[in-house]
Amino acid sequence: MLVWVNIVRGICMRLYSSLGFLAFLGACASLSQEQCQNGDWNGIGYSDGVNGRLETYISRHFDACSKVGIVPDVAAWKAGREQGLPLYCTPKNAYNIGRDGRNINPVCPASQASALFQSWDWGREYYLIGEEIALLESEQRGIEQRILLEFSHPPLTQEQILILSGLNRELRRIDREIYRLENRQRRYAAAPV
Question: CA-CA distance, 55 to 72, in Å (whole number)?
């Protein structure tokens, strides 16, 4: 995780040096100046727990708040995080994380791993099928655009008619595949019970 934090810091520093990306700097900080000054470290920790943030995430808060001369209350943050983690470590949340195409952070008890992974995998399958459908729909739009551009001005030559026939066959194949995938995706449309 430390490598990831260093990568993000590096990205933030490179963006900081570029005036064109000054508006993006707020996204690099984990907290706003107001959040640092408010000092609700238990609430910040709770939110981080609900979002499944690793314990090392506090280092991002140190970085963000050091700019305004504030030091996070680590004990309050940890207590809040511990209260929030149970909301992250639920099968329904694991399913939603998978459905969004994200990975589960390793913050949950090992005793829950099997149930969480099963739910995550179910949601991940929904996501992956959706990605396949999106690719097919993109291919479909490309073929339809080609037909519109190349074959909408009669009379068509015999060669154009053959090409158009092949493209229409391909559109029907794509339609069948999308229909098949949509039916399969419906199976994963809700978290497993």
Answer: 13
Domain-embedded: residue 67: yes
Judged by phi (left if over 0) then psi (alpha if -120 to 50, else beta), residue 9 lies in: alpha
Assigned domain for 47 exists? yes
State mean pLDDT over 77-106: 97
CA distance 193 to 191: 6
Concatenated DSSP letters of 88-154? HSSHHHHHHHHHTT----S-S-GGGHHHHHHHHHHHHHHHHHHHHHHHHHHHHHHHHHHHHHHSSSS
How confident is the model over 7-36, as pLDDT tens digits?
A: 334 433 343 333 333 333 344 578 988 988
Domain that holds residue 117: 113-186
Task: Count the domains in the chain.
Answer: 2
Tens-digit pLDDT profile for residues 42-66? 999 999 999 999 999 999 999 989 9
Report yes or no: 28 and 11 within 8 Å, Cβ to Cβ: yes
CA 61 to centroid of chain Cα atoms: 22
